[in-house]
Automatic annotation (TrEMBL):
Keywords associated with the record: ATP-binding, Nucleotide-binding
Protein name per Swiss-Prot or TrEMBL: ABC transporter-like protein
Domain ABC transporter: from-to ranges: 78-324
Polar residues bias (residue ranges): 56-65
SUPFAM superfamilies associated with the record: P-loop containing nucleoside triphosphate hydrolases
GO MF: ATP binding; ATP hydrolysis activity
Highest taxon of source: Eukaryota
Organism expressing this protein natively: Corchorus capsularis (Jute)
Stretches the record annotates as Disordered: 41-73
InterPro entries reported for this sequence: AAA+_ATPase (IPR003593), ABC_transporter-like_ATP-bd (IPR003439), ABC_transporter-like_CS (IPR017871), FeS-cluster_ATPase_SufC (IPR010230), P-loop_NTPase (IPR027417)
Length: 325
C-alpha cells in the first residue's frame, strides 16, 4: 500500500526572448527556459511574488507530515494529487498517479530506479512540452499550476535544474542570466539592470558556487565539464531565486569538493519559506542537504515516503527491499 505523501515542491521557469533562440536546438528543448524565483527561501534581491500564498487547501489529504507535525500549522507550497501524464508524441503513460505535498521550508528528496519517472515528474511540473498531463491536479501557492505557461511558472517562483543541462551556443552565460533576470524584473515592474549593474549583482554569487569569473563570458554550458554545468545551474538559482527549486540529480558528476560547494550554496540559499525538491540516487547528497522526507518513485508513482532512514535501507538492501515492504 502506498504511503500517504506529505511533501510539497515547486519552481518557475522563464523563457528568453525569441531573438536568443538558437536554431540548432531541438524543437522541444527547454534550454532557454530559466527558473526565476522571487522568494524568500532562495534569497534574491527581489520582491516577493505577487501571487499570494494560500493558507490552506482542502484538495489534498495530508493530515500529518513526515515530521509528525500537524499539517494544518504549515503552509502548503506545492500540492500534487493523482497526477498522470503521457509523452506528447507517443501517448505512452509515464506518470501514473503522483501524490505529493510540499510545505514552505521543507526539503524533499525523490529517489527511485532509473526510468521510474523522476525527471518526467519534475519536467511536467515546469511545463515541459514533451509531456501532456492527462489527469490529476497540481496546485502551487494556491493556484492551478497546470493552467500556467512555463514562463508564468517561473515567475511564480518555480525553478528547475535539469539533469542534463544543455549548451546554448552563441549566448554568453552572463548575457543569458542578465536577460533572464531582467525578464523577471520587467514582469515585476522593476527597472532592468544594465550590464555593469548586473555584474555587480552577480559577482558575489560566483563565490557562493566557487566559480571563476571566466565562466560568465563563456557560452552557456559550452565546453563545460559535467561538474561545471551543475555549478552553473546553482548559479542560475542563486541569481534568479526560487520558492521551490527542483534539483534533478544536481550531484551527478560532481567531485567531492564540488558536491560540498553545491550543497553549501543550496543550503545558503534556503530560508524558512522556500522549499527544495531534489532528485538523487545517492545518500551522500542527503547527508549535506538534509531532507524533511524522502519519497521513493516506482513506475510513475510515489510508492513510499519516509525519513532519511529510507536512504540507508536503499543503500544497504537496494530497491527490492523497498518495493517489497
Ligand atoms: N520524451 C520522451 N520520449 C520517450 N521516452 C521518454 C521521454 N521522457 C521519458 N521517457 C521514458 O519515460 C521513462 C521515465 O523516464 P525519466 O527520465 O523520468 O526517468 P528517471 O526516473 O528520471 O530515470 P533516471 O534515474 O535514469 O534519471 C523512461 O523509460 C524514459 O525512457
Ligand atoms: Mg532522471
Amino acid at each position: 500500500m502506498a504511503w500517504q505523501i506529505q511533501c510539497t515542491a515547486s519552481a518557475p521557469l522563464i523563457s528568453p526572448p525569441p531573438s536568443l533562440k538558437p536554431k540548432c536546438l531541438p524543437p522541444h528543448s527547454l534550454v532557454f527556459t530559466l527558473p526565476v524565483a522571487r522568494s524568500s527561501r532562495f534569497r534574491s534581491t527581489h520582491t516577493p511574488s505577487p501571487r499570494p500564498v494560500a493558507a490552506s487547501l482542502s484538495t489534498v489529504e495530508s493530515p500529518t507530515s513526515a515530521d509528525g507535525l500537524d499539517d494544518s500549522s504549515k503552509t502548503p507550497l506545492l500540492e500534487v494529487k493523482g497526477l498522470t501524464a503521457v509523452i506528447a508524441e507517443t501517448k505512452q503513460e509515464i506518470l501514473k498517479g503522483v501524490n505529493l505535498v510540499i510545505h514552505q521550508g521543507e526539503i524533499h528528496a525523490i529517489m527511485g530506479k532509473n526510468g521510474s519517472g523522476k525527471s518526467t515528474f519534475s519536467k511536467v511540473l515546469v511545463g515541459h512540452p514533451d509531456y501532456e498531463v492527462t489527469g490529476g491536479s497540481v496546485v502551487f501557492k494556491g493556484e492551478n499550476l497546470l493552467d500556467m505557461e512555463p514562463e508564468e511558472r517561473s515567475l511564480a517562483g518555480l525553478f528547475m535544474s535539469f539533469q542534463a543541462p544543455v549548451e546554448i551556443p552563441g549566448v554568453s552565460n552572463i548575457d543569458f542570466l542578465n536577460m533572464a533576470y531582467n525578464a523577471r524584473r520587467k514582469k515585476l515592474g522593476e527597472p532592468e539592470l544594465g550590464p555593469l549593474e548586473f555584474y555587480a549583482y552577480i559577482y558575489p554569487k560566483l563565490d557562493l558556487v566557487n566559480m571563476k569569473t571566466d565562466f560568465l563570458n563563456r557560452n552557456v554550458n559550452e565546453g563545460f565539464s559535467g561538474g561545471e554545468r551543475k555549478r552553473n545551474e546553482i548559479l542560475q538559482l542563486a541569481v534568479l531565486g526560487a520558492e521551490l527549486a527542483i534539483l534533478d540529480e544536481i550531484d551527478s558528476g560532481l567531485d567531492v569538493d564540488a558536491l560540498r560547494d553545491v550543497a553549501k550554496a543550496v543550503n545558503g540559499l534556503l530560508t524558512p519559506k522556500n522549499s527544495v525538491l531534489m532528485i538523487t540516487h545517492y545518500r551522500r547528497l542527503l547527508e549535506v542537504i538534509k531532507p524533511t522526507c524522502i519519497h521513493i518513485m516506482e513506475d510513475g508513482r510515489i510508492i513510499k515516503t519516509g525519513d532519511s532512514s529510507l536512504a540507508e535501507v536503499l543503500e544497504e538492501k537496494g530497491y527490492t527491499a523497498i518495493s517489497a515492504a
